[in-house]
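Hi both,

Apologies for the delay on this - the queue was longer than expected. I finally got the calcium ion-bound model through. Below you'll find the protein sequence and the ligand SMILES exactly as submitted, and right after that the structure tokens for the full complex including the ligand.
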Amino acid sequence: MTGPIRARRAGALAGMLMLCGCAIGRAALDVGSAALVARFDADRDGGLDRAEVAAMVSAAMPGSGPTIEAARAGLAAGYWTRDCDRDGKLTAGELAAGGRCGG
Ligand SMILES: [Ca+2]
Ligand SMILES: [Ca+2]
């Protein structure tokens, strides 16, 4: 009976995480982005590819089931809007820019 409630909560959580990413101060975000890339850049090429972003999202939203997976997909989609040069990798600079490409 808790399924729909959990779904709503997970959706709200994903939305909050995305909002927080935009609201956090720029300097803090730069540090956070570099740390994120350093932590999840498994092949050390300086950017996060699909698998690395998936690992990062899984770390942010542990658990299993369709609800959490939908929330993860939403969060990952939010991250991919930041791939300004569309090379399939997210650099620290792209993460810090928060999707404001070329601005
Ligand atoms: Ca990488
Ligand atoms: Ca890129």
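Main takeaway for now: Residues 3-23 form the longest helix (21 residues).

I'll put the files on the shared drive as well.

H.
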